[in-house]
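Subject: sequence -> structure tokens, single chain

Hey, anyone have a minute? Need the predicted structure for the following. Not urgent.
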Amino acid sequence: MRLVRKAVLGVTVLALAALSGCGAGGERADAADEGQERAQRPAAVVQALRTVARKTEEAKSVRVEQTISVDAEDGFEAKVSGVMSWDPVAMDLTTIGTSADPQGRGPVEIRTVLVDNVVYVNLGEEAAREFGGKPWLKVDVEKAAGEAGDPQLLDRLLGGGQSTQQQNPHQRMGLLLESSDVERVGRQTLDGVVTEHYSGVLTVTESLERNPASDHLTAEEREELLGKLAEAGIEGLEIDIWVDERNYPVRIDTRMSMPGVGAEFTVSERYSDYGTPVSVTAPPADRTADMMELEAGPDGAAPEPDGV
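Reply:
Had a minute. Here:
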């Protein structure tokens, strides 16, 4: 039960990360006055990226294929595919792990649906045995935000341009626009498509200063976070974006090195079918178990601590 719960929460975080924001898809209004380095960025490159960000935002939806990998001693790789929209916020994604699960049953396939601020996770029929034969687990993000006593949690997780880890292409463009070190690499052919390749580095300091979520950190929490990032050797994000002739991103790679813990985190995303209809429906109620009710237990008690 605890392993399944951890798996569901982990996938939920990935799901929310796929649709929650890091910036507003572009620079803040006062960004032009924020330091000499940003002012010295090539104007033509910045203008081109702003055009791409604007057109991507207007598309409102996309089909995505994503590979997430952690290169470490106990690393893993997962492949994600499906559709997502950011206006309105919705998605239907399938995640396949390429390594065995903790019980040695081989790669695990998980389907994740987000609709009406509720995440539904399908772990398969085998996992359903633990939940009365119900294969879908439900995480009501709005309800969770209320019970957490944090009414802003929902907005930070699910949208409004004020969230913390947006991974749709519109917000990925915003990440690159935040970088003080951005450049045009040049024209490249990618899978037969002629593209313009742009690259940049977003430092930890830039990320924290320009991330609305950091406004909620106390001075002590901020110093603790910076200390942990320094211990891991994290200096920032490396971002590469390939844009087709229609000004749509077709590939976005993000890398983060963690030499302090001997690991490297990489996300490679391929995008297609911009503006594709995203029709997402919640699974049947009689096939769904509520994660928060499972956590509380039959008598409404708080969940017991996780064991080994």
